[in-house]
TrEMBL record:
PANTHER family: BRO FAMILY PROTEIN, DNA-BINDING PROTEIN-RELATED-RELATED
Domain of life of the native organism: Bacteria
Keyword DNA-binding: yes
InterPro entries for this protein: BRO_N_domain
Residue stretches making up the Bro-N domain: 16-132
Alphabetic keyword roster: DNA-binding
Keyword DNA-binding: yes
UniProt protein name: DNA-binding protein
GO MF term set: DNA binding
Length: 325
């Protein structure tokens, strides 16, 4: 096994594989990361467990990650005299794991997407056991800047995992874009439907307004036909006629020839003058009846509420008026 070279300081340190690509290939997701001044990386355990399918992060850490590879956020930042990152998601008691702790969780994960990364780890161990070391191949294109570190080619399994994940993410993006287009189309159709409904409502309102105007014109014409309409809630007063009075009396009592003769004489007077103020003798002379019979006929009309007495005149003649109900 070759002798380890002197560890460079943080200003000279260069990662052979970018840590973001490394973690992405291992977990299948872009995970939050804190990079310390010494170059070490720490990851929220809850993020890693979520992406790897662990339902209970605390149990996953206890079962698979040694204590030396997990710490709280406050301890990790405090050891480097750093403040805790801003944001509600970065709590003081948030559990973090280092890169080795993340690999421990990946190795214990049963998700099929972790298989290529786990196969690469197994290949690295086999190569170290067989050859004493594991070396990444140098990239075909190297940086041209003076003093730039050597660029290495990404291991085939790691590259395949990243390509597969990116293709899956592109597919998800296409499905999301398709869903968004459908949503926009549905919103457009809904907006068009609302516009049609609004146009229908406007047309209905126009018809209703036209009906109201037509009813107003009809009411105006009716008002012209009835010069003095009755007050609201009042009764319509219909002026009696001789014919209507005689028809009403015929319904009220059994009319005999004598009663009808008296009725025909007094009805026009009651309608025109509003009262009957004639001596019985005058009515008797006009009907050809006796005074006594005229008096009996008037009494019968009063009994059946056809007329009613309203005292007497100065000459002593009785006064009668219509008994209107």
């Amino acid at each position: 096994m070759s002798e380890p070279s002197k560890r460079p300081d943080s200003s000279e340190r260069h990662e052979a594989i970018d840590v973001s690509d490394f973690v992405y290939a291992a977990t299948g997701a872009r995970v939050r990361r804190l990079t310390m001044p010494d170059g070490s990386h720490w990851f929220p355990a809850v993020d890693v467990c979520k992406e790897l399918g662990y339902t209970t992060p605390r149990k996953a850490l206890t079962d698979h990650v040694p204590e030396g590879h997990r710490e709280s956020l406050e301890t990790v930042t405090g050891s480097h005299c750093l403040s805790i990152p801003a944001g509600r998601e970065w709590r003081r008691d948030l559990q973090l794991i280092d890169l080795q702790g993340l690999i421990f969780l990946v190795q214990a994960c049963t998700k099929p997407s972790c298989a290529p990364f786990k196969q690469w780890v197994a290949e690295v161990i086999e190569t170290v056991q067989r050859d004493g070391s594991y070396t990444l191949e140098e990239a075909e294109v190297q940086p041209v800047e003076p003093g730039a570190p050597i660029a290495y080619a990404m291991p085939e399994q790691v590259a395949e995992a990243i390509v597969r994940l990116e293709a899956h993410n592109l597919q998800l993006d296409e499905e999301l874009a398709h869903g968004q287009r459908k949503s926009i189309e549905l919103r457009g159709e809904t907006l068009a439907l609302h516009r049609e409904m609004l146009a229908t409502q406007k047309a209905t309102l126009a018809v209703q307004q036209a009906m109201v105007r037509a009813m107003e014109r009809i009411a105006d014409r009716l008002d012209a036909l009835v010069p003095n309409p009755p007050p609201p809630g009042g009764n319509v007063t219909v002026l009696p006629t001789t014919a209507s009075v005689l028809a009403d009396w015929r319904q009220r009592l059994s009319v005999t020839a004598d009663v009808w003769a008296v009725a025909v004489v007094i009805a026009p007077v009651l309608v025109e003058k509003g009262e009957l103020c004639e001596p019985l003798e005058s009515i008797a002379a006009r009907t050809g009846l006796s005074v006594h019979r005229v008096n009996e006929c008037l009494r019968l009309l009063r009994k059946h509420a056809c007329i009613r007495s309203r005292g007497g005149a100065e000459d002593g003649a009785p006064v009668y008026v219509l008994n209107q109900s």
